[in-house]
Amino acid sequence: MVPVVVGTACVTGRADIVWWRAAAALVVAxxxxxGTNYANDYSDGVRGTDSDERRxxxxxxxxxxxxxxxxxxxxxFAAFGVAAVAGLALAVAVGWExxxxxxxxxxxxxxxxGGPRPYGYLGLGELFVFTxxxxxxxxxxxxxxxxxxxxxxxxxxxxxxxxxxxxxxxNNLRDIPGDTASGKRTLAVRLGEGRTRWFYVGLLxxxxxxxxxxxxxxxxxxxxxxxxxxxLARRPxxxxxxxxxxxxxxxxxxxxxxxxxxxxxxxxxxxxISS
Length: 275
Known about the structure:
Blueprint: H1 2-10, H2 19-47, H3 61-64, H4 69-93, H5 97-111, H6 125-146, H7 151-174, H8 176-182, H9 187-191, H10 193-217, H11 234-241, H12 250-273
C-alpha cells in the first residue's frame, strides 16, 4: 500500500492520474504481499522450520497444524493469481514490459522460502524486500501513469524500501535463536545479534536522511512532512538498542509498521501538495 501511494503521488502535477490504474497497482501490491506471506507459511511449514517449539512470533498455519499445507499453498497461488490478473490489465493498457516485472515479483515471492534453494535461507531476504516492496512497487506505481521511469519516483522508492526492509530485519532479529536451530541462515543470523540491531537503526536513519534530498533534488519541498514520522522511532530504537529479545520485539515490529505507514502517508501528501 505505502509504495503505491507514494508512487502515485510522485506523478501529481506532472501527469494525469488514471485512478483505475492506481487501484490496479494497489491490488497487485497487496496480492503479492498476501501471496508471499502464504508462500512463506507453506514452505517454512513443510520444511519444519516453523514448529511451535521454535516459533516466537504470530502463529503460522502450517507449522501449528491449523491448516493443511496444500490449502495454504492454494491460497498463495490464488493471491498470486489475483496479482497476475490485475497486472495483466495494466500490461494491456501500459506495456507488456510489466508482465516481465510481474513474473519476477511472483517468482521472488515464491522462492523466498520455496524451491530447492530458497534465497531467504541464504541471507538475501532483505535485498528482495528492498527491491520489490520498495523500488519496484514505488517506481512501478508511477510508471503506470507516466509510462516512463521517473527520477523522483526512484528517489522516493529508496526510503520506502529501507523502511520495508526494517520490518524484515526486526522480524529476523526476533527469530535468530529459532532460525539458527533450524539452519535458516537469514541475514540476521549471519550478521549476529549486535550488528543486526545497528543495521535496523541504520535503516530508519537512512530513510529519514533521504527526505531532504528528495525534497530538494525533486523540487517537492513538501516532502519534508515525512520527517514528522521520526518521533515514532524513539521507542522501537530504544527497545532494539537496549537488547530486547523474543516476544519483547513483537511491539517493535508493530511500531516499525506504524512508522512505515505514517512516513509513507506524509511523504505522499508532501509530494502531492508541492507538485
